[in-house]
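Incident review: delayed structure delivery

Summary: a single-chain prediction request sat in the queue longer than the usual turnaround. Root cause was a stuck worker, restarted by the on-call engineer. No data loss occurred. The affected request and its eventual output are reproduced below so the record is complete for anyone auditing the incident later.

Affected input:
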Amino acid sequence: MKQQALRSQVQAFLEYLAKERRYSPATVRAYRADLEQVLAYLEAEQLDLAAAPPDVWIPYFARLFALGRSPRTHARKASSLKSFLKYLTRRGLIQRGRTPGLRAPKLPKTLPRYLTEDQAAQLLNRPREGADGDGRDRAILNLFYGGGLRLSEVETIRPQDLDLESATVHVAGKGSKVRIVPVGQVAMDTVKHYLHWRRARGAVDESSPLFRNRLGGPLSSRSVARLVKKYARTVTGAESVSPHALRHSFATHLLDRGADLLAIKEMLGHESVRTTQIYTHVTSERIGRVYRKAHPRG
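Output delivered after worker restart:
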């Protein structure tokens, strides 16, 4: 398969992910980046994907490890490539059995990073009232922690998705599955403030993304992640606090205070309660530390 034809198939695959599988824009962007790297490798080695030997991917991933890529990155890239090869196989464009060497490394189970309740409270108050003019940053942080939302969900929230009276938000999660999430009155009040600020300066398109950048365009996921890290750094001193850490904090704090695991599962939009159960390990780990520190024979 010539390089130009392969590029066309990559584009078709990405459109399939976006339109038929309803993957989020962020996920599609990650697939695009992984497959662009695959295309560059095939071109540099002058390899025809359809005629290449089945073990063609072994040196490709060996090179990634030589560049210092983590096992998690390796696993993600292997998953992206396997999905694409299966797509090509189903369409009869390549033969079966093109995935040897694509076995992803076994990843260690890691507990999700989260903030303490005190750190979360400090973080939500970091954007000073009026400091950013519109209250946008305060509203974003409060939505992350108030509803345990994903980055892609906050990025795509529209005014019409808000129920100001019940303090709930309709969000489109993975696979565009819509769920209703309570975010709390405090978080909704920050959103009301931001929305009032926007409406006072002109008409607001109810069906367009709620959060805007300084030029009036939709706020990108990269910009949202950047502002979360900026404020979190002033609380924790760490560079690696992501929007997902606020989602983890939301779930952990609910569980610590006695919330039902199945209710947390529904709020997070998890397919299986097994995914949500990682937070029970987080809480157990914390309890263990408290016991060892406080018990006379701990």
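Verification: The chain is about 55% helix and 5% strand.
Action items: add queue-age alerting; document worker restart procedure.
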